[in-house]
Design brief:
It is built from one helix and no strands. It has 108 residues and is mainly α. The chain is rod-shaped and about 155 Å long.
């Protein structure tokens, strides 16, 4: 009877120790998981900072591109104005030549 009780107490003690080890292992696993989660959060935060910086750079590039497009449009309009001025100057010279010719050929 005492042997049986000692044996039972020993088995219970072994079960408690195993349970304790499992809980310790579980706590270690939880700590490791939490460490991994924290590492992933840090990585995600790094990506977020890179994304914000990239977004900021893209905004600047788009802004510069829009200025360039506007500048190109202005340059194109200036080119068209210059062509028109050249045509007007040519027409003016032709008109002056015509007037000079007609003034020389008209009797006085």
């Amino acid at each position: 009877m005492i042997n049986r009780q000692l044996n039972l107490a020993y088995q219970q003690q072994m079960q408690l120790m195993e349970s304790n080890q499992e809980q310790s292992r579980s706590m270690d696993e939880i700590r490791e998981d939490l460490k991994l989660i924290n590492d992933q959060i840090k990585i995600a935060q790094s990506y977020a900072r890179v994304f914000e910086q990239t977004n900021s750079l893209l905004v600047r590039v788009i802004s510069d591109f829009n200025v360039t497009l506007k500048s190109d449009a202005v340059n194109q309009q200036l080119g068209m104005i210059n062509e028109t001025l050249a045509e007007l100057e040519s027409a003016n010279r032709s008109l002056n030549r015509h007037q000079n010719l007609t003034s020389h050929t008209q009797p006085r």
